[in-house]
Specification:
The complex is a heterodimer of chains A (about 140) and B (about 190). Among the domains of chain A are: about 45 residues; about 45 residues. Chain A is about 90% helix and about 0% strand. The longest helix of chain A is centred in the middle third of the chain and has 80 residues. Chain A is built from four helices and no strands. With about 190 residues, chain B is mainly alpha-helical. Chain B folds into two domains: about 100 residues, RNA polymerase sigma factor, region 2, helix turn helix motif (Rna Polymerase Sigma Factor, Chain: A, Orthogonal Bundle); about 90 residues, Winged helix-like DNA-binding domain superfamily/Winged helix DNA-binding domain (Arc Repressor Mutant, subunit A, Orthogonal Bundle). The longest helix of chain B is centred in the first third of the chain and has 41 residues. Classes of the chains: A mainly alpha (about 140), B mainly alpha (about 190).
Chain lengths: ~140, ~190
């Protein structure tokens, strides 16, 4: 479309067609300015080098930070795991000691019972006469007569 | 049967190659213009570059569905307009608004005015008027600004603008008329 045709077309759009001619020069200048700006921006050297440079600075720092966090996390996890193992061993030992103590006390109680029974046997049972002893004595007296 | 399959595969490969070549030509021909529209809309070089890339990425993904009902330029411009709209409306825009210091004041575009065959005084006056146009455009509604830029920077036909924006031609005319009236009023008042 020719430039003049475009102006004519825009005159149809506006209700101030007679003034569009004056405005058109300014709009044309505006277009030329934007085109020049756009062309310069489009063909400008890209900022990839700056990005790379920034990345070169930040990447190792981020890498180190991430590495430190991972190491700290790993060590913490290891310490925690070790601590838990220790706690488990201590708990197992305590349970074992309790079990041994219980066995020992039950053995001791049984021994005491046995001792008591033995004492009863030796001390008390012998003082009581046998149930058949008077009859046996009478039988022995008859035989002597 | 096997020969037929091999032939089909060869045909498909050829069709893909042709499509890739076509798309490559479209990128080469239209990329600067799409960039220009996005730059004048956003006034931010980095943002315009990002959106231009997104536009062509989207176009590449949908290239097979492009039926040629409109010109490739109109189709691409429609994608660019939608991207620009989405971008401004999305959450990301909050970030861009905060960093709008990157965006050039559109009135500053006057410094790019080619000197041509004007005297220093004429050039200064012309720059001043271009700067005023830039200021007015910044204050237009998003739709009016888009239509104005498509018409006066990209020199698109009204019918093309209607297709690219998805509006009917009458609405485009009305928006353009209002935008022009504002520019005229502003320039007239400052005279």
């Amino acid at each position: 479309m020719k430039y003049e045709d475009k102006v004519e077309a825009d005159k149809e759009v506006c209700n101030f067609a007679d003034e569009l001619g004056e405005l058109d020069e300014t709009l044309k200048d505006f277009r030329l300015s934007v085109q020049a700006w756009s062309e310069a921006a489009y063909n400008r050297p890209r900022s990839s080098e700056i990005v790379v440079a920034r990345n070169q600075i930040w990447r190792p720092a981020v890498g180190w930070a991430l590495g430190c966090v991972l190491i700290a996390g790993g060590v913490s996890a290891e310490i925690y795991s070790h601590h838990r193992e220790q706690m488990k061993v201590v708990a197992a030992r305590a349970v074992e000691q309790q079990r041994l103590a219980a066995i020992e006390s039950s053995l001791r109680a049984r021994q005491e019972d046995e001792d008591l029974l033995a004492k009863v046997d030796s001390d008390v049972s012998r003082e009581v006469p046998s149930a058949m002893e008077p009859l046996a004595q009478m039988m022995a007296a008859d035989e002597t007569q | 049967m096997a020969a037929g399959t091999a032939l089909d595969m060869t045909t498909m490969a050829t069709a893909e190659e042709i499509a890739a070549e076509e798309f490559s030509a479209v990128v080469t021909n239209h990329r600067p213009r799409i960039f220009r529209f996005l730059l004048s809309s956003t006034r931010d070089v980095d943002m315009a570059e990002t959106l231009t890339q997104e536009c062509f990425l989207k176009a590449h993904r949908n290239w097979a569905s492009f039926r040629g009902e409109s010109s490739a330029m109109t189709w691409l411009m429609r994608i660019a307009i939608n991207l620009q709209k989405d971008h401004w409306r999305s959450r990301r825009i909050q970030f861009w608004r905060q960093t709008q210091s990157h965006a050039l004041d559109l009135s500053e575009v006057s410094q790019w005015l080619p000197s041509g065959e004007r005297s220093a005084e004429q050039r200064m006056l012309a720059q001043e008027r271009v700067g005023q146009v830039g200021k007015v455009i910044e204050r237009l509604s998003e739709r009016q600004r888009t239509i104005f830029l498509l018409r006066y920077v990209d020199e698109m036909e009204l019918s093309e603008i209607a297709r690219a924006t998805g509006l009917n031609e009458g609405t485009v005319k009305a928006h353009l008329s209002r935008a022009l009236a504002r520019v005229r009023a502003e320039l007239g008042a400052k005279r």
